[in-house]
């Protein structure tokens, strides 16, 4: 089974990025874990909307898919640098941007599963749709078309977003609990964070002295990759 959804083989070494708070990054480094959250905790109320659509069976019984509660996701972006992403995901000027590749990220989750990895670990590119296109997706779901069936169908249902969010250029890591249990809001898995992350870029708005303190601490935790502060807001030198 191909667990890369809408990502060509030639693009699996593509670099991707994630912005988070510095405290979250230090937690990852110290605990050697990566964490995914339930889509219902994401800001956009349209997340996971496909599996939240009630379906009426042949006996007239209406219900929502029980599978919608077993999904976890983590959002990354293909965008190298963005003012909007810094402001949205690091509103307190305490952000860091980590870089890895599609293949390395998926491998970290896949290898953490002792079994059932092929039906629980996915990564895919988000597709952005206009309102009329979303209506067609709803009709497909109501008709229970095959693209939403099975584990890969559920994973695919988490890769739709409204056109207004297209600037995010998202790649999503997805974990589906193979036991179909309703688990806590966060799913953490053991991960060699030092190998997963290729470089770390600090918030361009962060004070330089604060950046240097954090940089030293991250090096002390064993990170050998590149650590810089973004120059997004540096004045040009003509």
Task: Supply database-style keywords.
238 residues, globular, alpha/beta, 8 helices, four-stranded mixed β-sheet
Question: How would you sum up the major sheet?
Answer: 4 strands, mixed
Sheet with the most strands: spatial strand order: 1-8-11-6
The total number of structural domains is: 1
Taken in chain order, the helices and strands follow as EEHEHEEEHEHEEHHEEEHEHE
Low-confidence stretches: none
Q: How much helix, percentage-wise, in residues?
A: 25-40%
Class inferred from helices and paired strands: alpha/beta
**SS field, number of helical segments:** 8
Measured by DSSP, the beta-strand proportion falls in 25-35%
Terminal-residue CA separation: 53 Å
Report the C-alpha radius of gyration, rounded.
19 Å
Number of strands: 14
Apparent shape = globular
Mean of residue pLDDT values: 86
How do the strands and helices of this protein lay out in sequence?
Blueprint: E1 4-5, E2 15-21, H1 22-31, E3 33-37, H2 49-52, E4 55-56, E5 62-63, E6 71-77, H3 83-89, E7 95-101, H4 102-112, E8 121-125, E9 127-129, H5 131-142, H6 150-157, E10 160-162, E11 170-176, E12 186-190, H7 193-196, E13 199-202, H8 208-220, E14 226-229
Provide a descriptive summary of the structure in words.
With 238 residues, the protein is of the alpha/beta class. The strands form five sheets. Strands 1-8-11-6 form a four-stranded mixed sheet, sandwiched between helices. The chain has a four-stranded mixed sheet with strand order 2-7-13-14. It starts with a strand and ends in a 9-residue tail after the last strand. The protein contains eight helices and 14 strands. The chain has one domain.
């Amino acid at each position: 089974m191909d667990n890369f959804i809408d990502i060509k083989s030639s693009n699996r070494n593509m670099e991707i990025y994630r912005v988070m708070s510095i405290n979250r990054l230090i937690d990852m480094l110290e605990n050697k874990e990566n964490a995914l959250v339930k889509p219902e905790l994401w800001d956009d109320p349209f997340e996971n909307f496909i599996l939240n659509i009630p379906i009426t069976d042949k006996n007239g019984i209406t219900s929502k898919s029980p599978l919608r509660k077993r999904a976890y996701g983590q959002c990354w972006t293909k965008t190298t640098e963005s003012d909007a992403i810094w402001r949205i995901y690091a509103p307190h000027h305490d952000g860091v941007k980590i870089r890895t590749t599609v293949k390395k990220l998926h491998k970290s989750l896949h290898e953490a599963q002792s079994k059932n990895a092929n039906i629980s670990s996915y990564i895919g590119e988000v597709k952005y749709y206009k309102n009329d296109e979303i209506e067609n997706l709803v009709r497909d779901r109501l008709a229970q078309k095959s693209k939403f069936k099975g584990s890969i169908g559920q994973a695919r249902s988490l890769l739709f977003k409204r056109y207004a969010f297209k600037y995010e250029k998202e790649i999503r890591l997805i974990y589906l609990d193979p036991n179909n249990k309703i688990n806590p809001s966060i799913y953490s898995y053991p991960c060699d964070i030092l190998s997963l992350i290729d470089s770390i870029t600090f918030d361009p708005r962060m004070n330089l002295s604060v950046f240097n303190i954090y940089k030293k601490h991250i090096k002390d935790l064993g990170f050998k990759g590149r650590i810089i502060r973004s120059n997004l807001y540096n004045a040009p030198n003509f």
